Amino acid sequence: MVEFDYDGIVENTTSPTLVLAGPGSGKTYMLADRIARLLAKDVDPNTITALAFNRDAAYQLRWKLTSDFNVARDKLPHISTMNAFGFRVVKQAPRKVGLLKEGLDVQDLGEVKVLLFRDAALAQGFAEREAAAAAECKQNGDCKEDDTRVECKVCRKYHEIMAKCNLVDFDDQVLFACKLLEDVEELRNACLTQTAHLLVDEYQDINAGQHRLIELLSRDSREHLFAVGDDAQCIYSFRGSSPRFIREFDADFQGAICPPLPFSRRCPKTIMEEAGRMLKSFDKSWKGPFVLENKVEHDHEPVLRQLASEVGEAEEVARIAGRYAPKHSVLVLAPKRDFFPAIAKQLRKRDVAYFCPAGELPDRVQRVKRLVDWLGKPDDDLLTRLVVEDLMNSGVNKVAGAAKQKNCSEATIKKRVYTETEVAEIWDVVCRDTRFQAALRAYAGESKEIAGIRDGLSELQKSHAYLERLLDVDPDDEEELEAERHGGFLRRLAAFSGTWTLPTELAADLADVAELAEGQRHGGPGAVQLMTMRKAKGLEADIVIVVGLEDDLVPNRKRDEAEEARLFYVAMTRAKRELYLLHAYRRPRNISYGQAIMDKPRSRFLDAIGRKSEYKPAHRQ
Fold it and tell me: What ranges make up the beta strands (E) of 123-195?
């Protein structure tokens, strides 16, 4: 029995507390228990705030409070994601950050953010690489304004563009909230009252901006700050999260205590131990492993198998899944989505129900969909900007060199950058009374391609209006009406956007769309789940199968090795019963990152586990 003063920790209000809660340790229950005990002591729920990483986690905490602790819904404290809390703060004083209260919304599409940062850089004469540097700086959340830095100039222009659309992005919900809390005393005091008892879930996932928000909200009541997290599960460095926030908690908040929650209620003992041994080999700074009291009655060793090829691997997944589903939950994890079509095909062969999250539509279908969406909302500035970019990349007004690759000539890249800059400068005309579409319509620059896009969109709107009979049409103009009745709009749409110039292209896209729909149709209770490893956090299943475990795939050489080890740790610790770790002797180059096709070495993470792989030869029909 592991000694642990659970009551003393969950009720601690004399010092900041960070509970190191590993996978399946019961952290959500602990957060709910602390809230319930505060309420039982007649603490005003309006002074309690719990910040979750995402909406699902916020829902789970509310559900736990109402179902396990019988807290009435009207007695629940404020529970939301950190970004939603920040947005609520921004909406109370939007003019202080250059925004309007009416119609204020959030823009969270990554491709839009990249595009607008590029516009912000080019419009000021800076290069695309400076746009990327500015975006990364802001995303990390460690913003220190400096008028002499190019990144700050780009960021300021980006905010100017976003303000014209009356939008904030995902990161600015928090960054703007921090600025307002620092600058507006009345607002700060109101928030400090609401966060007198502040609870933070998934502390390992915060970035510098969110750390700053937590510091501000707990400034008057440090002793009531209560966080849970696990540095072993910090896997979002692409958005600025870092294990250092957990590892330096006691330095950031003086007098803090950081006890582990020493229970394992999900994973079998051997799987937990071997996952921990693997992680410690690659992340020396990890605070674990801890001595755990394992609450799982059964124990199973992980099964390591090498298959002859990617086809054999997919067949093995289907065999394992077919053996257990639907009686047991089955989760299949892969390094990337490219693994799913082959696995889905084998699951269908065995009539095994599965669910695969809808992927992105084929590029050509996505372009057409966006263009059709725009025809319904032409005053949407960001949608108009995306459509213009699509038409620069394909169609009759295509401008080559979008990727700026080394094989592009200097003249090609120069023309592309010139055209991109002309588009970026259109934002200078946009204001409350002049939307991006109107500014584009008034374009009088020298770019023939932009002029072609301008005129083409205008013609497409006219054709669409004829089709929908939204314009008054001369009844004698039967020839034009007849053309629209026989697909004139669709032909014009396909030609203008550069879509489906060949019947085989349309057939290929329809097949891809059918494949996506098939993955949704087969879903339901007991269906096998197909997920990427990075999407696995928060999930669990009786049977977990991890595929693609060759050394040129896992770890991904472009990412930090310690974080890749943490990602694999997260994948392993989803298993409630059995864990299968698969790798292939042969893998095509379009799936793997390496050059070798045959005799592919298994992941170094499997070597660290210390078990041999059983070789399973190709299945003969």
Answer: 167-169
Q: Token pair of 432, please?
A: 């409350």
How many other CB atoms are there within 10 angstroms of residue 485's CB atom?
12
C-alpha R_g of the chain: 27
Report the alpha-carbon distance of residue 409 to residue 427 in Å, rounded.
29
Q: Which residues contact 250 (CB under 8 A, 6 or more apart)?
A: 18, 256, 257, 258
Cis peptide before 262 (omega within 30 of 0): no
- Tell me the pLDDT band of 1, cut-offs 50, 70 and 90: very low
Q: What is the pLDDT of residues 188-238, one digit of tens each?
A: 999 999 999 999 999 999 999 999 999 999 999 999 999 999 999 999 998
Residues 6 or more apart whose CB falls under 8 angstroms from that of 471 comprise 462, 465
Residues near 61 by Cβ (< 8 Å), separated by ≥ 6?
28, 31, 32, 50, 52, 79, 201
* Residues 120, 114, 509: CA angle, nearest 5 degrees: 135
Name the residue among 363, 374, 372 with its Cα closest to residue 513: 363
The one-letter amino acid at 594: G
* Residue written as token pair 């180059």: 589
Nearest to 275 by CA among 31, 572, 30, 621: 572
- Amino acid letter for position 550: E
DSSP letter assigned to residue 309: S
For residue 420, what are its two tokens?
């991109």
pTM, full prediction: 0.89
Give the span between the Cα atoms of 197 and 254, in whole angstroms: 17
Of 374, 393, 388, 330, give the one whose Cα is nearest residue 545: 330
Comparing C-alpha atoms, which of 506, 550, 498 is closest to residue 393? Answer: 498
Of the candidates 334, 356, 336, 333, the one whose C-alpha atom is nearest the C-alpha of residue 344 is 356
Among 21-35, 67-81, 493-507, 535-549, the minimum mean pLDDT is found in: 493-507
